[in-house]
Amino acid sequence: MRFHSTRDRTVSATLGETLTAGVAADGGLYVPERLPRVSPDDFPPGDGLDRMASTLLRPFTEGDPLDAHLEAVCGRAFNFPAPLVRLSGAPGPASVLELFHGPTCAFKDFGARFLAAGLECTHGRNGKLTILVATSGDTGGAVAAAFHRAPWADVVLLYPKGRVSPRQAHQLACWDENVRTFAVLGTFDDCQRMVKEAFRDPGLARVCRLSSANSINLGRLLPQMAYYADASLRIWRGEGRKPNFIVPTGNLGNATACALAREIGLPIGDIVLATNENRTIVDYFERGVWEPRDAIATLSSAMDVGNPSNFERLRWLFPDAQRLRSRLTAQAVSDRQVRETIRSDEARLHRVWCPHSATAACVYWRLPEKRRDEHWVLVATAHPAKFSEVIEPLIGRTVPVPPALAALLQLPRREQDLPPRLDALREELRGSSAGSR
Ligand SMILES: *Cc1c(COP(=O)(O)O)cnc(C)c1O
């Protein structure tokens, strides 16, 4: 299978090649040249998440050097569970898909680990890669954990100082050896701009080979289909019906993976996107006009995206705007509603949401009565303990810290402040690549 740019079908690559390239040369996003078809019978019932992932991704690696390593790569990426937990106390059949049991307690661990394991197979022997990442909180930690101590990669993280949660900041800065963390004296947009400028900088291209691990990389997007496949097949086999999913959404990566899983044949019913006050996609569904804007800071900071990049992939998946709007719906949730949902669901369901997952829960409670007999899956994207400063005052008690997070919080922080300018970053990257030679 080959993949081509959303902007030009003649710009094409194998999956392995797209992992290093990230974005297509023309600035578009890579998409598969055709959609394979799968059926529930393709997936042996007793398979774990890792085997299910390799069955699902097999058609995408056909003819690619990555194909020979697919089982091993999935084994490394999916070495922690994505449990589907019944939501008892809900007014109808509902479950929570818990995606926060990985090393950094957010769903981004799945994609980051697949990308790291895949790159090691496709690039590991071709010299050192510098993985440059701008992060608004969760991506950086997941990428650092996935690439830590890989001898063929250096990781450079840029995050906006003071604009991520205290525990997220710790998780970004607790690494050593091949991971360096910079607290940029600016916003997330500054961090992203510096990364884009670094990629275009001819001086830097001479000293290091830059690669990105952001959420438009197919190596992060495609494997995210696996947990939707697993959850939907469980319900399909157990109840003979398709579940609907409510997905907390920012850059539209996780939601696009869900839509793609349904398009290739998995038993998925409706997909509802839950956004925070950054409602670009909600407005698009309501008014039919795509109007990207600056991001607004909210409690669910990992979803603070005003111009979701993966929209370009949704447009490719559903070229007809009418059809796109009939296949997906979206609802926005305010910070006030996030707080209310966290507080009341702790009381009525004994469930503590992170501020991102709470957007999905809020949308669930808005469902009309007649739709409550359907099986709804609420996607929980991060562990609430990562956001204790928001959650604990609302529920009036502490949230137990999972062991993976506790281990990271014990490590010392090492990071450096960095002015929000390319020349400052260039100095640092030059210094580190000279040192590692
Ligand atoms: C990144 C993130 C999101 C948004 O996911 P997208 O794929 O960008 O839409 C939601 N919740 C959490 C906790 C995240 O880290």
Description:
The structure is a single chain. With 437 residues, this protein is of the alpha/beta class. The chain has a domain at 81-107 and 221-402: Rossmann fold. It is built from 19 helices and 14 strands. Helix 11 (253-263) links the parallel strand 10 (244-248) and strand 11 (271-275). It is globular. The mean pLDDT is 93. The structure holds pyridoxal-5'-phosphate. Pyridoxal-5'-phosphate binds next to helix 11.
End-to-end distance, in Å?
37 Å
Q: Approximately how much helix is present in the residues?
A: 40-55%
Instruction: Sum up the overall morphology in one term.
Output: globular
Q: Largest sheet, described in full?
A: 6 strands, mixed
Proportion in β-strands: 5-15%
Report the top-level CATH class of the domain at 81-107 and 221-402: Alpha Beta
Helix/strand-derived category reads: alpha/beta
Q: Give the radius of gyration.
A: 21 Å
The chain-level mean pLDDT equals: 93
Please give the order of strands in the largest beta sheet.
4-5-13-10-11-12
SS elements, strand count = 14
**Poorly predicted sequence stretches spanning 5 or more consecutive residues:** none
What's the number of helices? 19
CATH architecture of the domain at 81-107 and 221-402: 3-Layer(aba) Sandwich
Kindly report the CATH topology of the domain at 81-107 and 221-402: Rossmann fold
Oligomer: single chain
